[in-house]
């Protein structure tokens, strides 16, 4: 942080004096400086050793100053250091969605993790709700349930605030779709009616209303709602919701065999995802799957394979945490693989869609679509082309397989046993036709499953 330069104590060594002298002036009169980070850390450690209470008071003053001067994210850092949970909660409640919507989901998750580490989730129900949303979008079903339950308990313990919390709770229920499409639609309606019109969260409620209508087989009703959701989300900068709404509209267009419109909508979704740096967000696998299908329809096999490779790397995001999106993406990927005569790949993808449907069976038309595609696959001979048909568990292994970590260390990071990791790795080797880890990594890069930067 910035400070007026103080007189240098006689006991400070020459190296520290140099750090002071090399501070960056922040004012043309050279009255304010930004200290070198090493000097800042040195002073902080010394002060914390001598007077930890003073450190907290200084951090609290810094948090108040930063908030008053519009440096809100920096204010969060200082408020956390001061252990001022009320100020952190107030700031995070207002900043979490903008951070997520601008492609900085990891920053938002770090803020919420601070509450989890201190056992404060239930104390702030809105924080618990927003944390649950982020866990949904990260594809972590167990963490979703933990945060959602904390939100419900926290809201119940604060009866006067329960009514104000209901639209938020309804939005979370709609997102999770635990009780089927009809309930999803009702919950999304409750959320849309109770949230501030024109807000990012309202755009999300519209998105879920539109998806629920499409899943119920009422695309004629759902498509205009999705169009409105895309418009509002774009206007308020909720880029994830905007790209998701456009991808859903592209699915409707494909179902109507309006491939020109589907390609235009998909192009807009891809552009928003690129602009917003949403490559690793939960809607991206579906966007790339639809892009692959539109590319195949116009005969551009090379571009279709590029989109499929990107979608495959993101498939670990597709879990029962967001069941309808996961099944939709798996079905579109399976159809694209089938168009490329990769029956084996299509079977693997359809198997994962069916696994999610077993956990969330009431997903409207998706059950019939899955059964119809299964019937078509059953009549075809097994063939394999292009990238290997890896399972979701195997795909989660790939980023760590390409590191220096041992199987035991990989297992610790994925909460799996060393035996399970080894078994999954050997399965990957077999599918790639590789005899070693290094050879498997080389072939993964060749197929695009690790990306050019891996």
What is the CATH topology of one domain? Serine Threonine Protein Phosphatase 5, Tetratricopeptide repeat
Could you give the order of strands across the largest sheet? 1-3-2
The whole-angstrom Rg is 25 Å
**Regions with little confidence, pLDDT below 50 for 5+ residues:** 1-22
Q: Which class best fits the helix and strand makeup?
A: mainly alpha
The rounded distance between the terminal residues' Cα atoms is 35 Å
Largest sheet: 3 strands, antiparallel
Give a structural overview.
- The chain has 454 residues and is mainly alpha-helical.
- Among the domains are: 2-84, no CATH class; 279-387, Serine Threonine Protein Phosphatase 5, Tetratricopeptide repeat (Alpha Horseshoe); 395-447, Winged helix-like DNA-binding domain superfamily/Winged helix DNA-binding domain (Arc Repressor Mutant, subunit A).
- The chain contains 23 helices and three strands.
- It has helices at 14-21, 37-50, 52-68, 72-81, 85-101, 105-117, 125-137, 141-156, 159-176, 181-194, 200-215, 219-236, 239-255, 259-275, 284-297, 301-314, 323-339, 343-359, 365-378, 392-401, 407-414, 418-432, 437-447; strands at residues 2-3, 24-25, 33-34.
- Helix 22 packs across helix 23 (437-447).
- The longest helix is centred in the middle third of the chain and has 18 residues, at 159-176.
